[in-house]
Structures are given as structure tokens and as C-alpha cells.
């Protein structure tokens, strides 16, 4: 990979813009339209989920999409508000217990700024590998638990009551306490909306295709369920004055484009939000890069991990200047963008323009949009994120992974998103260190008449009383080196005739400094007991590193090229 | 190893006591005498270092040694106050900003209780592997930095001034501010004491051996430097009333044995001390187990990691009931015990009895002990812990390890012991994950005319246009699985004629669930591109695990026993 500075790497637009064609323009425009239809109601809904005014969803979408089109690494990723990140934003803001909506918005902008800064720094420092700290089963569990919390948090709007809580049980308790005061008009609108969106997803496309409608148009229509729900319920609310029936409306949404400005800064805010910002950045990045890579691979394209960080970071920074909240590459929306034929990042730019048109001309109509319809849209959207199969799969495949998955799922539901994902990461790392803390090691002997060596436990092999041969099947590093030492000391304790210990290192890819010191210590201990330590079949790069130290000088035995040679030499 | 319950495992005394002999009694008594001579002044000095009354050092020693003799796993470990743990205790207590000595002592007892509880729980739950999270170079750096802080903290007593600070710079600044008010009588006693201890260590033994003194007695005399310094300077202080010259004396030390009682408990104290207790437990355990294992190996004995935790835990719990502070297996003291011929844990018991005799009958004499003499004893003791060679060695061997060592050293010196060791552990883990996040992977081809496969970059090999063979030289897990995916997607992006990807898995020892999901994703992505995914030379245990999932059912290609067979089959 190119490690030098490349201007084009940091500005992917310089690669695709010069080759832009009419046909690409047509594809991008169609994709932009379909995505906008899907995104507009989502953007409003996720803003409310984050605990912010509805218009911030529009601002975050148009700014995020525009800036990602300039810096982003993927041709099809749709960077705007997403459900899980919006929930995490709500959690981060709730911790601050701010008094006014203005303070809350200011904190949201600062959170977005920090999150953007982290992403940008990680990208510029080429630290994309940090995303690897999240194991995939842990992410699946986290997303499922978050979706459950989001779904439940929307039930208050379906019932027309008000509940609150950052975790599943809190929300459930709060909701149950309100069940006496259900507003049934609201409930019917909610149930009807959910039914209509599911129906349009499952049935409409095939219906239109059957009666000969063009595939593009049929797809567009099937994606328009949420928008149609918003239009129809808004119209109903306007005609029948449903607000007088107790149905909550979205209310005033300011007209126009966002004002740009730097987010306010305070040390207190920095201290309270830095952890949340870090989690939001990492989750947002991991989700985005997975989608981006999957989609790119389908077209044999590639996505630069670090440029993706730069793109996401720039989008979030810009969003924080443009009155929004954290944005990320949404899975279903990006898939829609991809399938609708988006050819270049310009598709995102065109989507942004369509949303700007809505913000400029159609906000008065949004006044009549029932809150419950947005809740219905969110519920259907997050339902698709719930996936318990990871639990069963982990149970069958690996109890260690199952433990990490269960910890993440349970703690996210019971305590909240930040503790949940934090514990999941910690559990993954600890479990991994635990698993590798007992490296696979076998006492080996020679299969008679051959030069092959196999475990004495599983094969009939010849061994010699004055030798002990041990094959190490793992790299040696600080977390497993002590085990090796203990094992060797145990093995030699009942072998009085032992003169030679041979470590066969075929599968040892790395020896870190802890392991080097342990080997030196083993060598020293064995020397005092009159036993020599030998190595065999050490890989070249490791020999190179060891040769820089005193190790071979101090080694009481030899470094053999082959295990068989060692055994022959020492018998 | 025996995994069932064994009464004798939890009570090692049941193993050694029935075989106790006169000769062992003689050996143990001699060793106990030599250790007691070394320990008595150290115990007083480390108590003051921890910020506690001098007698707590005697209590901690006698209780710790006695209980370890009953439960400990090592025959020669000497469990009593040690320098680094005493410093960590002082740091933990200083954070609480307590007003009175009584409150400080109560907090120290609770800290000891927590630390003992942790050790006991880790042992009973058989979680000894947790100690592996500390890499050896990081521990070396931490011990060196701690020794520097301890040494500097004692300089105030040498100069007869008072300075304070939890880290190197703080202490240094505080000390410089006081240099105007040096008490020269104190300073001469301090310098003389340091000189005498060093002289006795280096010269006396050989001198006595030369004039024909018995080796045991010569050793005892050479170890008695600190005790002699205490005796001589105490006598000088008494005769010349040095307190009237401004020399600080130890003062009243209560006579008698400790009162036993449960340490006081409060939630506030728990919250403030739990982190420190955890760090103290881990550092104490890691230090103890290293010494215990090294010494045991020299006699071809073994030490059970988890029983060692139980022994240390019980000692600390008992110490917290008996008015002491955290204890651990000291390195130099245990070596002395070993070299003096301690045959069983009874040696520790006898040392405890000797210390009890001092506490019962000789405390009035302690009144006249100059504080500066104890400082001199500490300074000589910790000087032996300072070892900068780890920096040079790490620099030569591995820049990654060097980074972790430097972080630990610098942060311990500049900020303090807790931040220092915490950052060291974190740095080790992150660096390890980073190093394994790019597994060694090679595109391979067949060495013509053989069945051997080698990297295409380093050897002249034959490859086929419709195949891509990749050898993976590392276990696959969450931190490196994404890299593999990216690599494969990159490699296939410019090979339009590709039909088969073969992953050669000779060196893959584990595939965790993240890696499994990545392999499934790669398989799916390749399927969409019309490319089949094959595996070759997968190890049996991994095949067994994969067979429990749908992986082989979904795999578009085959699982080949040998790489050559795969290549032949697919050309």
C-alpha cells in the first residue's frame, strides 16, 4: 500500500469528479431521490430520538451528506443520522441533566464536534486498526440491545403517553405506570402506520412489478411507505384537527438552512462528554466501515480504512458547525443507495439538495405531522436490527464469545448503551488474553522410522530419557509466557535423568520482550539444574531479532534448524 | 493438573508438617534468625514509608509470616512488608486526605482487607492467569521508578528536613525548597549509615570467611549491617541525646502484640480504595509468584499459582485483622531465606516468633532509633531494585515493548505509582492487540517440481491465473480478522480471471467467532463475484469447531487436507 503522501487520497473527489458522465448523473439522481424519500422522515424521527429539535435531523443530514461526498472513501455510503448513534447521543446528553433545550443543543453540537475530531485524528494518524477492538459478535449484541431500547422508547408515542429511562427496565417500568392514560386515537394512528409501512415493504413492490411498472419506480414506491405515512397522517391531523383529540404533533419547525458557527466550549463539558464522544466515534466508524466494505466488495472496489475515518470525521465536524448531531453510515439506507444505483458520492450530494429543498419550502407542512407516525417509522426501522441468532450461534461455536455477547446484551439492556458496549469491549479483550494465556503446547516424540514429530499423548512415538521435546503452537508474548515457564518447570521436576530441553518453534510467529526474558529465565534455571536448553525450527525473522540480544550467547544449548537434527545430535 | 478438590492443596502445611525433622528444624531456625535480623529494621522503616506508625510494620510481619506459613505454596517466600507495596499503600492513603493518624490506620487496615479479599477470591476462583496481564518489562520499569521515588522520599530524612509529594518531581521540588535548613548532625549519621551498610554487604562476609569463621555465621554477620546501624545509631542517640541536636527519633513504640479486630467498613472508603487495593494485590502477587517460582525451580520444586494467591490472600486478610498493612513476598528477603537454608514454611513462623519477642521486650529501646538510620536502610534496600538496563534492552529488541516500558517509567515518576502501572498495563495490551492486528499473511505459490509452497515475493514459484493462494501465519481473532478481509478484497480487486481463493491454514491455531463471521462474509462476498473460497491444511480442533456451525455447508469451495491437493484439483 502507498505510504507516501497523496493529495488524491485525502480528496477522493479529485478522482471521481473529472470522470463524471451524464449516465452517472442519471443514476445518482435516481438514487438520491429514493434515499431522500426514505431519509426525510427518518431524519426528523432520529433527531427526536436524540432528544433534539426535529430540524437538527434535517441539518445533520444535509451537512453530513455534503461533506462526506467531498472526503468520504465509499461511493455508496449514506452518512446521516442513524438509530443507534442517536440513542447514544440521547444517553450522553441525559447524563448532563441540562435545564434548557438551548443548553442541550449546545452540548449536542460539542459532542458532535468531539466525535468528529476523534474520527479525523484517528484517520490522519492512520489508527483505523483501533476499530478492531470491537469483536463482531459484541457489536451484533450491542445493536440488538440498542434496537430493543429504541423500540421500547418509542412505545410511549404509540400509546400517546410519556415515559423515560436510559435502559430497558427503566423504560418498561415508566411505560407500565402510564398505561392507564393511553390515548386511543394516537394508538390507532400508530398501529395503522406500522401496518402500512410493513405492508408497503412486503407487498407494494411486487404488486407494481406485476402490473408492469418500471422496476426503478416500483422500488421507489415500495420505499416510500414511511413518507406516505407521514403525508397521510399529517393530512388527517390537519383536516380533523387531531391535536384537539390529544394527538401530539411535531409542531413548529423553523424554515430555512442551518446557521453555521463554532460549537461552544467548556472544560466541564469536555470532561463529561469525552468518553461518550469516543464511544460514539468508534461505534459509528465500525458500523460505517462494515457497510462500506461490504458494498464496495460487491463491485470489486475497495475502501481505504483511514480515509473512511477522515470522511466520517470531516462530516461530523461540519455537522457540529451546522447545527446537527452525530452522523454515521446507516446500513439499510446505504444498501438502498447502492441498490438504487448510486454511482459516485454525488448521489449523497443530490440527496442533501433534496433535503435542503424540504427545509426551505416544506417545513410549515411538518407542523401537522403526528409524533406517533415518526415513532412508527422508527419502530419498523429498528425492528430490522434485532437479531438474537448471534446468541445461539455463539453458544454453539464458542462459550467464550457467548460470554462476551451475553455481557454486552444484558448490560446494555439493564444499565445502558455506554456501560454495555464498554463492558463488551473489555470482556472481548480479557477473554482473548485468557484464551491465549495457555498456549497450545505438546510434549512430542519421533514417529519411529520417520523424521516426523507428534504429541506423545496421541501417538506412539519414541522419546529419549535424557531429552524433553516440547512443541509450542503459538506466538509467545506477555500473557502466555508465564504459563510456558510453569509448564517446563513442572515437566522437569520429576525427570532426574534429563539433560536437554528442546523447544520446537515451528508455529511461533512472534516472541515479545516478556517472552524473551522468560526464555532467558528458563535457560538460567535449567543451567543451575545442569540441563541445557535448545531451540529448533525457529523462524528467520525471530532469529534475526534474537540475534540482536545476548540470547544466543547465553543459551546453554544450540539453535537447531530441524527438530530431528536436534534429537539425533543430543541422544 | 489435578482439578478436583484436594484438602491438602488448600492446606500445604498438611503436606510438610508430618515429615518435619530435627535437621529441618535446625535449618529453619538458622534461616529465621538471619531473616529476622534483616526484617526488623525493614519492617519499621516500611511502616513509616507507608505513612503508618512503626509498630504496624512489626505486626504486619509477624501476622503475615505466620499465616503464610499455614497456607502459602512456597517453602521459602518471606511474606512481610515490602518497599514497593508500602509506597503504593502510602499513595492510596494520601489520596483520601484523612485528618488523623487513627483514620489513616483504619483506612490502611481496610485497604489490606480488600487486597487480601481480592487475592483470596482470585485464588479460589483459580484466576491466577490474571497476573499475566503484566508484561515483565513493564513490571521492571515500574519497580525501578518506584524505587527512585522511594529513595528520593527518604532523602528528607537524610537531610533532616521534611518534604512531601507522590511523584518524583513533586518530591524533588519539595526537597529543594528545604535544602537551606539541612540538619548536619542528621546528615552525617545518614551518610555514615549508608556507608556502613554498603561496606558490611560488600566486605564483611569475605573478611570473616578469610579468618576462618563458619560460613553460616559469616553470612549472618554480613546481613546484620542494617541491624548494627540501628543498634549503633540508637546507642549514639541515647548517649549524646541527639534529639537535642535536632535529630528526629522514632519515639514511643507501643509494647506488646497486636490487638485483633475486624477493620471498619464504609461505602465511601470502599469506593475510594477498591482501585488501589486491586493494583496492590496484582503487583504484590506478580512479585511474589516470580520470586517463589524462581526459588522453587532451583530445588526442582513447584509452586501452585492459585494456592499462592490463597496464601497471600489469607496473609493479608489476617494482617488487616492484626493491625498491619499490605504484605507480599519480598525479593531480596526471600532470596536470603532461601540461601540461609530455609527448608519449610516453618522458617517464616520462627521469624515471626523472633519479631514477636522484639515487640514484647525491646520496644523501649526503639525509642532512641534515629529516623535517619531507617531512611538509610531503605535507601540501600531500594537501590538494588533500580535497573535501567530494561530500557536499553527493550530499545534494541522491540520498539513496541520499549514504548510500554517508557510510558510506565515516565508516568510512574511524573504522576505516581497508580497511574504509572495502570498505563503500563493498558499500553501492553493495546500494543499487543496492535501487533497482532496485522497478522502475517503471504500470497504463496508452488516451488516448481515440489509440493512446497512459498511466498511469491521471496521465491520463484508457479501460480495459476484462476487461483489465489494465501497462507495465514497467525490465529484469527477479532483484532486481526478485519485486516484479513480487507487484504483479500484488495487482492481480488485487480484479478478478473480469478475463480478460486485458497486459504492455507497451517499456522492457524484458533478461529474465534468474529473470525468465523468474517470468513462467512468473505465467502458470501466472493460468491457474489463468482469466486469460490477454499481452505487447506486446517487443524483438526478447528475443523471440529467449524463443523458445529453451518460454515462448511455455506462454503462455496472445499476444505482440502493439503495445499498441493487444492492447487492440483482447481487448476
Automatic annotation (TrEMBL), chains A, B:
Residue span(s) of domain STAS: 457-570
Keyword Transmembrane helix found: yes
One of the GO BP terms on file: transmembrane transport
Subcellular localization: Membrane
GO cellular component entries: membrane
TM ranges: 30-53, 65-93, 105-125, 137-155, 175-199, 220-240, 269-292, 342-362, 368-390, 402-434
CDD domains assigned to the protein according to its UniProt record, in alphabetical order: STAS_SulP_like_sulfate_transporter
Keywords per UniProt: Membrane, Transmembrane, Transmembrane helix
Record membrane topology: Multi-pass membrane protein
Main subcellular location of this protein, as a coarse class: membrane
NCBIfam families in alphabetical order: sulP (TIGR00815)
Record-given protein name: Sodium-independent anion transporter
Organism: OM182 bacterium MED-G28
